[in-house]
Each structure stands twice: as C-alpha cells, then as structure tokens.
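Exercise 7.
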Amino acid sequence: MPLDVDGRALHPLADVLAAAEFPLTGLLPAGAFDRIFYLSSDAAFDEDVLVLALELAFEGELALTPPGDSVFSFALGSATAGWTGIRAMLTLGAEPSILLEEVTVAVRLRADVLRDVTTGGPAAIIVAADLRVTPDGLTLERFAGAGLAPAYVADTEIVVRADRVRPVFGMIDPPGWLEDREDFRGLAIDELSVTLPGKYLTTEPGADLQLKLAQAAIDGDGFSGAVSALADPEHPVRGTLFGFPFRFRALELDIQRNAVRAGRLAVDLRLTPLETGGREKWIALDVGFAAGRQVSAGLSASQPPGASDDPRFLVSFEAAEVVRLGITALQLDAGGFVLVLVFSGAATLLIGAGKVNWPTVAFDGLGVGSDGSVRLPSGGVVFAGSATAALGPVTLRASGFGAGAGAGGSLVLTPPRELGVELSAPPVSGAGIVGHDPAIGRYAGALAVQLQRVAVRALGILDTRLPGGQRGFSLLVMLSASFSPGIQLGFGIMLTGVGGLVGVNRRIEVDALRERFAAGTAARILNPPDPGRALVTQLTELAAVFPPAEGVVVVGPTVQLQEHFDERTDDDATLRDILRSLRDVEEEPPLSRPVDVDGIAADLAAAFDPARPDAPVRKRVLDRITGLDPAEPFAPPEPCIGLDLPVWRELARLAPDWLLPGVGQLDPDVVIALKTNPVFIDAFLTGLNTRTLEELRWRNIRVAGGCTPLRTFWTRVAAAGDGRRVDDIIGIQGWERASTLGDPQHSPDDADGADPPARRTHLVAHPPRFTAL
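Solution. The predicted structure, written as tokens, is:
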C-alpha cells in the first residue's frame, strides 16, 4: 500500500538479515535488501524459533524471481508510486521464511509467452495475496482477484483475455484438470476469451465471433491451450476475411509451449467479382495459422452448392465469351508483405467459340503475388487439350506443349508431346501422329490412309532405353493392308487383310498373345485402328505382347480372315422339318403306383405316440406345472421369487452420497427439482440382483437362474390411482441384447417417470401444531 515516510525513522533491513545470517537473500536481486527498510518491529520466541513482526517500506518497484524459473517474476510496488508499506513476518530458525501479508503482487510473464496489447511488454496478472519466501522458492497464499488483460499469444497476433486466473504457486491447489501434474507451478485458467487477428478476420456489427479457450496453462514451459468452435446455424457469423465477405463454419486452435501446433479456420468466402446472373458465388476455404505470424489458406474438400458447375473441379468460374476456369486446388500463402495465390486446375478460352478451337490449359502450382508477380510452377503450364489449325483439307494438331520455370526463374518452353495431321480429300482420307514420352524415352508414330475400299495402316515404336536402364534401343514396326470385298478362300473363309511386323531387340510374349486371341482383342494389335483415337491403348498392348529384349529379332507376316457363307436354306419343307424337331416330345402318362399301407401305418403310429417329447398328453400335463426347466422337466422346480423392497432406503442408509451427492451443501429452506438417473438405476439393480441370487443359492434356496427378484428402486405407485406399486425395471432377461444401460425399454409400460423434488428445511421436519376452532 502507498506509504508516507516523512518524519519516520527508516532502518535498513539488510542489517537485521546480516546479523541473523538469513539464508534467503539470494532470492532477491543484488542490492535489493539495501532498498528495504523497517519502520517498527516486534519479536517473539517460540522454542528455538525467533519470529519478527516488521513494518517494511521500500521505494519504487521490488521484483522477485523464483529460483530456476525464467518465465515468471513477482513485482511489488510500482516504479512511479513512491514508497510502499508492507507487513512482514520474518522467521529465523530451522525453517527460515519471510511472509509478506496482504500484498498486491503483479505476476509477470516473459514477453515471448504473453505480450500485453497496450504496452507491448510482458503481460501481468494482478493478485492480492500473502507472499511467502522459503528455501524452496516463492509461494502465494490466500489469493484473490486475478485477471488477465488482453495479451498476444507467443509470437502471433491472437489476443486472449481472462477474468479468473488461478496462480498455482505453493499452497494454492491446482484445478481438477491439472491433478495429474503434481509438480505444476504457474497459472491455470479455466476459460480464456480468444480474438483472432483483425487484419485477417473482421465480423459484421452484432455478429461477433465469440471464442473460448478451455483449460489453458502457463508454466515454465510456456503457454498451452486448445480452442474449437462450430458455426451456429440459428445465429450465423458473417464478416470480412482478406477483404471478402465470409460465413464462419469452424475453428480449431492448439497452442503447446508457446508454439501454434495447429490452427485452422473454416469459412465460406463470397467472391463478388466473379458473380454473374445475380447468383452469389461462395467457396469453402480452410485458413491455417502458424507461429511467426504466418497464415495460409486452401480450398476445402467439400464445397457449398453452386461453387462448381463441373464435377471435375472443386470451384469453377465462367466469364461469358471470355474464359472458363476450373480449380482443383487453391493455396494462399501470406508471409511477410506479399500474399501469393497458388492455383491448380484448367482454363479454356471462349473467345470466338464455334470458330476457333482453343486448347485447354492445365496448370499445377501457378502462383500470382499481391505485388503483381507471376510464379510459374516447376511442372509448368501445359496445354492439356490439342491446338488445331485447318489448311484446306489438311488439319494440323499439337498437344502437350507449354511453359515452365527454369533455373533462376527463367522461362522455359516445353515442345509438344504429340503432333498430328489429318487429310480429308475424297476419295483419299487419312491421319498420322507422332509422339514423344521423355519420362520413358519412347518415340511412337502411327499412320492410316484410306483409298476407296483399300486401307493401309502403320505403327512404330522406338525405345531409347533397354530393360534395367541399359544403353541401347528397341524397335517395332507393324504394317497392314485391308480391303473389301475380301478374297474367297473356300469353306466359308475370306481373306480381308495382310501385313507383317519387324522387331529389333524385341521378343514375343506367347502367353499374353494367346490371352488376347482367346478374348478376341488380338485384332487391335495385329491390325490397329486409326491412329490418334486409341494410340495410348495400342502402345500399351504392343509393349505387353512384344516387350524389349536385347539380342532378339522378330519377323513375321499377318493375315486377317473372316467367316463368310453364301448358301441359304429357303425351302419350306426343310424349314418345317427343322421346326418340328425342336418342339417337345409328348410322353405317355405314368402307370398308377400301389399304396404303401405299411408306411402310412408307421407314420400314424409315430404321430399319436404318447412318449414323444411333443405328445399332446405330455404337453398338456407339463404346461400346467410352473417352475419346471423344459430341458429337464423332471428336475425339482426353481421358482422366480419377487421381493417388494424399494432399495433406495438401503442405499440412503449405507451410502447417502451415492443417492443424492452434495445435498448437504444446499442452503436451508431451499427446494430444488431433481432428475432421476436411469443409467445408475439399471446398473445398481443389475448388480444387486446378481448378488441376491448368489446369496440365495449359497443358502441352498432354489431359485430360477434368469430371475430378477428386485425390480423396485423408488417407491412409486401406478398412474391409474389404484395404489398399486410400480416396478422401475422389467426382468433383466427381457432386455434387448443390443440395448444400453438406461434404455427406456428397460422400464415397465405403466411407469410414469415422475422426478421427485428435494428440500432442506426444518419447517417440514418439525411442523407447528394447529388447533381447529
């Protein structure tokens, strides 16, 4: 407290501590005791312990630091408040200590743990408490009023504040959620209010995003805590994110020991510049936060309705007669002063649609910076479709070309992977294509020419690598010619095509070729269709049937045969004979068989046998006797007894805290409503019935194995008003196997489920006496 020392004698406390050889001077900074004075003192002896009651005074601020702790410090007084007075108890003996009574302490944290928003310096929690200094360190006792002013978490711009902070130093017990950390020393906060950085997230007036961080802890390892929040459909939160309107969906934030381990904000973002036709354009975005004030964002895997009109893309846009854009992935990196948008997807120009066939441009990792820079990915921008150009009857086609980033950010052009040409000049037509796959070092080409009824096709593959990465090459060339009509060879067989193949450093995979003959797909290899339409399939088939093999040469002809029959059967008599042979043949009915009298007699005797287990006489007699085991009907009966005993009375007598925990803490003359616990009742009666049956059997009392003798927990009567007592559960054998404890199916149909009140009052226990006049 502030102190006026004018006219009062000040005695250095250091003189007393030096005379008493006090061992705790190391807890204060060097020279600190020279600034502390005592105004008055009282001494008392208790056996070998000397206790001094002192009135201390010091000017400015006095800072104490626990030994071995670099996160917290305790500050008394103020650098601008003048003199401060404190009552202290100095104990000299086997267990020396200094007790500063009812002082105002500022518990400060390092700036890299929490930074005060107003001052930018270390955050502080102001408490009123007793501060004790012992050889074990500093402890707080009997504290009151601890709050945390708005502060930044670690090196982020996330702001937290709290009204109730528990300083756990010494005598103050930690909260229950820290009971597994017996050595915890620091600040425990049950609930923190969290505010996200305003430059990234701004909410509309009246739609504040209220976030709470539960079970936050600050100790020698730093700040730790976790927060999560989901959108409330009834009260949506809207605002501005990166300058765009947004709708809040979810938030997850995990901070461990001053580091943002994981942070994610899920929102729907409205892209107003891309809206057309009066339709709102919303996309789902996941924003990630990390240490060092870094923020990143990307498209969510699930997008809102209307985000994309094309199932191939998460988000799609179209500017009429300009461009169609499809996005499969988007990433926003905000580091330093430059925001970089990184796209993956495809784009198609719509300018001059119907007249110009623009190729589709595919890109993966194309970046656009807020400073106007364009960052090409290492994979480049690739024209996924084909660029075509028509020159009279000739059409040229190129695909797979693009541009990418080279060394030092230079622009590198990628040559086309396929070049093709088509010719349409009747009676001649044809097409050809050549391609290069640099990944496997393969060159391939195909050619097809049609001249009226004669077609010529060729296919070639040149691999510049042998199996195992050996240097060398392998070549395969196939030629074929087909014609219509074919040449009749007799026996219904017609020759429709001839050809041949040559392979250098190639072999024949006989089993693979046999499988394709069996499946009827060999023609796609030996007589390939037009090039360009199935070139990739043809190359895969050829590589499987004629794989590379060093030192092997394959040469062989090919022929194409077709079944052909010109003979026709049009004679009516012949057709009638064929149809008559196909109808069902009528058979004579079978002769009558004699009746098996002996068999019928045996069946009747078995049906009326009184010794059968299900004989009518046997069943009629046994059904009238209860308590019998159907498997052993002649065994002694075991009845199912019923005990009309409300077991809550015994529970209240033996363990009242289990019946109504905390009822002793109610204020006098208070009535509160109660709610029964069906799960506890089911569990309690299940265990009690099990032990009751065991006790009865131990006492040699016969009782049915599936019996439930105790079914009443409370004292309830039927709702019909006839005074009949109602059970709380049905027989346990009647419970469904898949049901859980507390299932409503466990209660009888006539149980009303009314919940009793609880009252604590002397008026009901001792009612006054009244006299009727």
